[in-house]
Recover the amino acids of this structure.
């Protein structure tokens, strides 16, 4: 199993500047590279403190100059909020600037608060996303392409700056895996789904996982060796007080996300207020559902996660809701020194091997045929 770093870049209050948030993120990315993490992922959100990163491609381009080996991923580019031809060129540019280290995570978006301000209908987000995915595949794999869809129409077009990676950077998909049309498209092209249980138990993802496996079996793919990314909040501590504090901070992030998704968020300036969600678990249960505790507990929890999900990548979210930077870096150091080696040792005993990511863009294949 590979270990990745996920950066949401939240600003909890006025004691942090935007510069502090970005400086702390770069610190974690550099340390992630040092401890052997495979990919650093950068979120995208707009107009509030839930995330200060409106452009994961810009974050990836900046961190390309701060690192030399770690891959740089967008988690995710919210496709309906982009002009597809500009996005194509920026993907090519960042892959060249990073010497072929870009990973393109895509999603359809879920916050109507954002969509209203971009003039896009949230109800049409999946249809927009599927068309833009067509355009990305064509533009990245063909010397010249044209496109006619419901939302986008382009004459014959060439993209001057193509990615170093051929035929294109890896595509990962988040936030769409409960949608049947998207599940089938992801399976057909071999793209990698990203899931998270948030504050829920791992069992909450079993139905989505099984549905994805069923679709892969239906098209002849080996469902037992599918790549899968699992995003998890992790905080390493020997203190019960710190464990509760970490869970409360992660709870704030999940509450903000849910209130933005369901359109009941209240704001104090740019700050999403900490509003309890309907039927949320008690804080003690959240401590158990997140990965919070000492090194041995974290190793055990991660291995149990793998027993359930058989995921190929764990995206470690180490900074939520204003977790102090010194504690974030402590968690990162524990991951490098103890947790990652401990997990790999336990998985090796089980004979776990990493699946091969074999992506074949659907539109490109159709065009070649």
């Amino acid at each position: 199993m590979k270990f990745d770093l996920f950066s949401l870049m939240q600003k909890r209050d006025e004691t942090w500047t935007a510069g502090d948030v970005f400086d702390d993120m770069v610190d974690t990315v550099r340390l992630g590279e040092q401890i052997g993490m495979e990919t650093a992922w950068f979120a995208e959100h707009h107009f509030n403190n839930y995330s200060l990163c409106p452009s994961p491609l810009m974050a990836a381009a900046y961190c390309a100059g701060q690192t030399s080996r770690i891959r740089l991923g967008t988690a995710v580019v919210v496709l309906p909020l982009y002009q597809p031809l500009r996005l194509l060129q920026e993907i090519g540019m960042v892959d060249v600037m990073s010497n072929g280290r870009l990973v393109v995570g895509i999603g359809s978006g879920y916050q109507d608060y954002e969509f209203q301000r971009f003039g896009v209908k949230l109800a049409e987000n999946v249809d927009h996303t599927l068309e833009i995915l067509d355009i990305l595949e064509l533009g990245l794999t063909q010397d010249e392409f044209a496109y006619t869809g419901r939302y986008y129409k382009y004459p014959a077009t060439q993209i001057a700056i193509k990615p170093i990676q051929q035929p294109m950077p890896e595509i990962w998909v988040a936030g769409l895996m409960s949608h049947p049309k998207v599940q089938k498209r992801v399976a057909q092209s071999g793209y990698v789904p990203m899931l998270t249980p948030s504050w829920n138990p791992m069992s909450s993802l079993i139905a989505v996982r099984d549905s994805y496996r069923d679709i892969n079996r239906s098209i002849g793919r080996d469902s037992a060796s599918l790549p899968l990314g699992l995003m998890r909040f992790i905080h390493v501590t020997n203190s019960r007080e710190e464990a509760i504090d970490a869970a409360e901070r992660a709870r704030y992030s999940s509450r903000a996300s849910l209130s933005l998704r369901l359109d009941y968020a209240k704001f104090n300036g740019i700050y999403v207020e900490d509003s309890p969600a309907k039927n949320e678990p008690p804080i003690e249960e959240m401590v158990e559902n997140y990965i919070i505790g000492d090194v041995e507990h974290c190793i055990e929890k991660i291995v149990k996660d793998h027993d359930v999900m058989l995921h190929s990548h764990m995206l470690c979210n180490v900074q939520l809701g204003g977790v102090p930077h010194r504690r974030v870096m402590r968690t990162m150091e524990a991951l490098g020194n103890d947790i990652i080696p401990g997990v790999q040792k336990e998985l090796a005993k089980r004979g776990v091997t990493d699946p091969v990511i074999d992506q074949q863009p659907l539109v490109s294949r159709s065009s070649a045929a």
Q: What stands out?
A: The first strand starts at residue 2 and ends at 7.
